[in-house]
From TrEMBL, chain A:
Protein name: Ornithine decarboxylase
Active site: 393
Principal cellular location given in the protein's record: cytoplasm
Top enzyme class: lyase
Record organism: Zygotorulaspora mrakii
Automatic annotation (TrEMBL), chain B:
InterPro entries registered for this protein in UniProt: Acyl_CoA_acyltransferase, ODC_AZ
Name listed for the protein in its UniProt record: Uncharacterized protein
Gene Ontology BP term (one): viral translational frameshifting
Species the sequence originates in: Zygotorulaspora mrakii (Zygosaccharomyces mrakii)
GO MF: ornithine decarboxylase inhibitor activity
Entries under Pfam families matching the protein: ODC_AZ
UniProt family annotation: Belongs to the ODC antizyme family.
Amino acid sequence: MTEVELTPRLRNDSTSLKFSLDGGEKITVSEQSEHVRNNDASHEQAHKLIFESLKRRIEAINGETCEPGDENSFFICDIGEVERLHRNWCEQLPRVQPFYAVKCNPDTRVLEKLSALKVNFDCASKAEIEKVLSLGVSPDRIIYANPCKASSFVRYAARSNVLKSTFDNVEELYKIKRFHPKSELFLRIATDDSTAQCRLSTKYGCELENVDKLLSAVKELDLNLAGVSFHVGSGASDFTTLYKAVRDARIVFDKAANEYKLPELKTLDVGGGFQFESFKESTAVLRAALDDFFPVETGVNIIAEPGRYFAATAFTLAANVIAKRSLKNHEAMLYINDGVYGNMNCILFDHQAPTPRTLYHNSQFHYFDFESSSRDTTLHPRKEKVSIWGPTCDGLDCITTEHYMEHDLIPGDWLYFPNLGAYTSSAATPFNGFEQVAEIIYINSLKDGI
Amino acid sequence: MTKDMLAKKRSRIIELLSTEELQEKISEPRNTGVAVSFPITRLLKNKRPEPLNGNQQSQLHVYCIRDAGYHEWCADIDRIPLDKGEDETEVYWDVILLTESQLLLPAVGGGELGSKQVYKGFQKHIVKRIGESLSRIVRQKKSTQDNPSTWRSLGATYYMVYLPLYFSDIIWCKSGSIYFHVFLPGSSQSVGDKKQSNEKEWLLALLELASSFDCQFLRLYLRRDDKNGVLTFLRNLNWIGGRLVPNEDRNQYIINSPSNDSSVQDMLLGDESFVILEFEC
Ligand SMILES: Cc1ncc(COP(=O)(O)O)c(C=O)c1O
């Protein structure tokens, strides 16, 4: 058995990041001040342009004299934001080739933009592969990362010439051997995702102590192991997990070469879970981990599967208040024309808690009143306590159980939800011929000015 | 009352299927599930169309690892393993009724509405509709039924699936065209919290079954009574590609229905007790 250095080297260099070893295992980024946060002025969203587009649309709708409830909710999608996010990615993670997680938002224009920016794609279903191929993307730019593969999925990947795919159990390897033996395989390891909002790793991924079984099956079946992958889960607040996962991947790389004499593994896939708000911190940890365990000299390619990072901040959703039930003074239930069965299934599927803000009330626009709502009554005492519901009269269709709003909204008013591009419209997207239900107004802040 | 009648039927079916042959299969460690399937054409006495393939027989399938190295559904024997003397046709009718009754509105099951007449009415209605489907099949006419993606459309094939590692109760399913509908038992029927932790395994078993019957989409009906279970399930399954399907708009359905006997019976059915998810298979 090869010795693998498990203790990360202490760093105190020009990157200004320090790791402190806490209890021998816990690694923390010690310099996390507000100024390194990503939501600084150098990356402002195109608020002016977003507002103008929202305003224009709502004025047009108001001019059409519809009854409340006749309007549809709609998105503003800033394609320029996608491009700026990509630039930011390249600055922070120049070594890492992103494979965008299509599931996160399969909007055609976003996919086309990403494809033009030479971003590759992570597909989790046949429909996603079909969609990406239909854009003229070559199958070698796709990784098939479905963690629950029926035989028919593997056959489909073979037919469509998609070679890269992840696996985490021996049965999958047998299916691959039978239906798609030329696959380039990524062994998915489990990570500790206890601090993530969306905990997936414990369900998917092979524990380190069980990796031997997989490596020996790869060897026995004479399959092509291309690398190791992991996904730390989305919304993690503690990036130690990321560091540890890279370290664990190194163990698997070494094991494959030294104990199983497999051909040298070529690629490390660091998964998704990156968030715009914490991108500086997470990428700093990732860079440090890569330098420690996969330095450039090793020649290992690094890829990632970011979803929300590229989609969340590019979309703003506007929804109309269609009904109101007053409960008592300053307390009401608001019903809006979108919900979990429409564009907000992220609430059910992805632990998201969208932020409602007043867009239009009392014949005035309030877009720039970023404090027009709060989840917390003590921090920002607000007048109107509301719960917000989708249009279906279904207990699950709840957008927020408690929010405090500046304005006393009434039917006909508009709310907007910023940063709502991740895991939102996917349910309404062409899964089996369903087309997008919401209207999307595309803007490009890089072309049209911020 | 209706609930009681159906519960009796369910127990009878389980009893009938508890043959030694089946018990033996279930107890083999490499077998992790069994399923019984039959096309509704098995209900035809004489005019059965020529069987084109195995899926037109009634079959016992076993989910097992054999030489392939992975779990697959193998059609084990081409008949339902009943003891001699049992009337197969009666079992088929009961399975159809039990599957369709998953969608009886909760109010119909007990209380005033749950009278014997309601049950009889429901039974008659299903028998009539199956009869119509069969005569269309015999006359090789195209179906004028509802869209096969909805639970309202009757199955061309019905299934009883038993995955004892994950659920202690039978899972009732039906398929028609490219859709495979699965009614999961309530949370109290899952085996400990295994249902949660092994959702990947049981979902895979169901996807494989659906695809072995050439279905392209699996619709999973999860009971809402276990709200937390449903929420956890949704969060964990997002990545597998589940799509949330909106429930039927019953008001709209009622408005669009002609007012006749049949539509009155249809009103007793509804999907509001379920959260519906759709998966590719
Ligand atoms: C395997 C895998 N890769 C990538 C992603 C994308 O995650 P995110 O959108 O958080 O970047 C997910 C999300 O669930 C995932 O499970």
